[in-house]
Amino acid sequence: MIYKNVLEAIGYTPIIELQKMVGEDSARVLVKYEGLNVGGSIKTRTALNMILAAEEAGILKPDSIIVEPTSGNQGIGLALVGAVKGYETVIIMPDSVSEERRLLVEHYGAKVVLIHDAGNIGDCIDECVKTALRMKEENPRVYVPQQFENQANPMVHRHHTGLEILEQVAGPIDGFCSGIGTGGTITGIGETLKALNPQITIWAVEPENAAILAGGTVGNHIQMGIGDGVIPTVLNQCIYEDIAIISDEEALHTAMPRQRAAPLRVCPAWLIAIYLQASKSLLYLSYFSNRFFNPRFCISDFRLYIPIREEIVKNIIRKGCKRVDLNLNIHHFI
Ligand SMILES: Cc1ncc(COP(=O)(O)O)c(C=O)c1O
Q1: What is the pTM of this model?
Q2: Which of 77, 133, 143, 224 has minimal Cβ neighbours within 10 Å of its Cβ?
Q3: Ligand 1 center–CA 29 separation, angstroms
Q4: Which atom of ligand 1 is nearest to the CA of 285?
Q5: Ligand 1: does its nearest atom lie under 6 Å from the Cβ of 73?
Q6: What is the DSSP letter of 223?
Q7: Which CATH class is domain 43-143?
Q8: Does 43-143 match 6-41+151-333 at the fold level?
Q9: C-alpha dihedral over 7, 9, 12, 14, to 10 degrees?
Q10: CB atoms inside a 10 Å sphere around CB 331
Q11: Active-site hit among 4, 32, 43, 319
Q12: Which of 116-125, 168-177, 232-241, 246-255 has the least mean pLDDT?
């Protein structure tokens, strides 16, 4: 099949069963590998759907400017969609996200506005949103998709990602876990999977330092793209049965080459699979984990892009993981 443009190639990512990472007593872990999606993550799906919905509603005109507050992948997706469709795009992001994300957005031709993250990601995202809304007030050409509120976000997962998963997995899916950014992924996919199998258990995954759904306090963390310190409007809070809280150290540790899962960032899935036990299947989504690191610091001296996290790195070095090889190939590790 020959696609007319890159947007037509969005979706239909593979599902890969982890072989080496889980033990015999664990559930099998199926990873829907969104790292192979156009734009490198699941968020290109929501970017396209929000833009298509706005075009259909007549909100987006050819001279419109797309402005979105985001901590990462959604910005990359919107920059890509904006570039293909010819919209000027501005992405407003915390200055604590990796340099790689910022460069990618700029590479697609979008402008980046950085907002200082003084140690509370929730406050910073709030400021990003306010900045976007101010730009809208000042310029009627500005359209703010507002992924945290836009129903086109969970809708694409309900109607596309979720159905893709059902088509791909023949047997029952007993568990599903997803990190919460806007909540669109867990809401849309969760609703589709639960409609077919009401017995499924769904886990929301939150970073320890922004476990707001679990009633925790919000600080800073390195798990970019989830744990934005807000309870999003699009999140269906009844869709998950439980919450898995993952520390930065656990997330980073499972992303190490030694753990045989480097490219997939599967920490919560690993823990929940042990809990679910054998003969069950657990589904998880992942993107390529090199976005988790800032290559400039990581390869040379293994420091993280957020200086306050250096303590974690010291601990991991003590545990024997010496460096991150960013040229890892998925086929080596699963
Ligand atoms: C693999 C994966 N899961 C979950 C999320 C969070 O997505 P959402 O904003 O739909 O909650 C992201 C965000 O980038 C992601 O890449």
Answers
A1: 0.83
A2: 133
A3: 18
A4: 1
A5: yes
A6: -
A7: alpha beta
A8: yes
A9: -120
A10: 8
A11: 43
A12: 246-255
pLDDT tens-digit series, residues 21-78 = 667 788 888 989 998 999 989 999 999 999 999 999 999 999 999 999 987 789 999 9
Distance between CA atoms of 65 and 88, rounded to whole angstroms? Answer: 5
**Residue of the nearest CA to atom 12 in ligand 1?**
225
pLDDT in tens, 151-203: 999 999 999 999 999 999 988 899 999 999 999 999 999 999 999 999 999 99
285 CB less than 6 Å from ligand 1?
A: yes
Beta strands, E only, the chain: 15-17, 28-33, 65-69, 88-94, 111-115, 142-143, 175-179, 201-207, 242-246, 281-286
SS3 label, residue 40: helix
Tell me, using a 6 A CB cutoff, whether residue 178 lines ligand 1.
Answer: yes
In sequence order, the β-bridge partners of residue 67 are: 90
Query: What is d(CA 304, CA 289) in angstroms, rounded to the nearest whole number?
Result: 14
- Smallest CA separation from ligand 1 atom 6, residue: 181
Per-residue pLDDT band for 253 (boundaries 50, 70, 90) equals low
- Among 32, 73, 291, the mutation site with the greatest number of ligand 1 atoms within 8 A of its Cβ is 73
Report how many helices (DSSP H) and strands (DSSP E) the chain contains, helices first: 12, 10
- Structural fold of domain 6-41+151-333: Rossmann fold (3.40.50)
Q: Residue 226 and residue 123: Cα distance in Å, rounded?
A: 15
| Any ligand 1 atom below 6 A from CB of 286 | yes
- The encoded tokens of residue 282 equal 């657990």
Nearest to 161 by CA among 121, 190, 119: 190
Distance 186 CA to ligand 1 centre (A): 8
Rounded to the nearest angstrom, the distance between the alpha carbon of 143 and the centre of ligand 1 is 22
The Cα–Cα gap between 217 and 232 comes to: 16
List the chain domain ranges. Answer: 6-41+151-333, 43-143
Tell me, using a 6 A CB cutoff, whether residue 201 lines ligand 1. no
Q: How many angstroms separate the Cα of 156 from the Cα of each of 33, 163, 242, 320?
A: 17, 10, 24, 42
* Residue at 259: amino acid letter: Q
